[in-house]
Amino acid sequence: MTTYCKFEKALDILVGKWKPVILLRLFANGTMRFSELQRAIPDITKKMLTQQLRELEYHDIIHREVYHQIPPKVEYSITAYGHRMTPLLQAMNDWGIGHMAHLEELYGENRAEKLIEGESFID
Q1: Residues 6 or more apart from 49 whose CB is under 8 A from it?
Q2: Cα 114 to Cα 92: distance, rounded to the nearest angstrom
Q3: CB 22, CB 41: distance < 8 Å
Q4: Which residues, at least 6 apart from 86, have a Cβ–Cβ distance to it below 8 Å?
Q5: Reduced to 3 states, what is the DSSP secondary structure of residue 69?
Q6: Are 72 and 22 found together in one domain?
Q7: Do 54 and 23 fall within a single domain?
Q8: Of 69, 90, 104, 113, which is least surrounded by CB within 10 A?
Q9: How many domains does the chain fold into?
Q10: HTH hxlR-type domain location, by residue (predicted)?
Q11: 97 vs 50, higher pLDDT
Q12: For the whole model, what pTM was predicted?
């Protein structure tokens, strides 16, 4: 196996609809409880949020702190290792903003939104 191209490995960690959203919420808010994350991302199911958090925890991107109390309390935060992703996520966000502006210049605001949402290119 070659060691010079690990782009796919990085994408495996970031790809999907929810991981970037979860990470951006945690970067913006610091430590968050599960219920806070769920309220911050209303379209995600409990099962999907749990799965995505476990995967991010496995990769040491986020830390899961369990407080043994009644009722149980679990908090999530970005690890020191995870903070190394800040420039990458910021660059992706900046590119996304620029890309939306570019599409709006090409197609107009309403058409650009439809293209981003995955609607057909052909009317």
Answers
A1: 18, 22, 34, 37, 38, 41
A2: 20
A3: yes
A4: 27
A5: coil
A6: yes
A7: yes
A8: 69
A9: 2
A10: 5-104
A11: 50
A12: 0.76
pLDDT digit string, tens, across residues 7-40 = 777 777 887 789 989 998 999 999 999 999 999 9
CA dist 79 and 57 (Å) reads: 9
Q: Do residues 34 and 71 share a domain?
A: yes
Could you tell me the residue range of the domain that residue 122 belongs to? 80-123
Is 2 inside any structural domain?
Answer: no
Closest CA to 53 of 33, 73, 81: 33
Is residue 80 within 8 Å of 61, Cβ to Cβ?
A: no
In Å, what is the CA distance from 80 to each residue of 39, 60, 86, 109?
25, 9, 11, 39
Could you tell me the CA-to-CA distances from 27 to 40, 82, 109, 117 in Å, in that order? Answer: 13, 10, 29, 25
Asked whether residue 106 is domain-assigned, the answer is yes
| 49 and 69 part of one domain | yes
Is residue 91 located within the same domain as residue 44? no
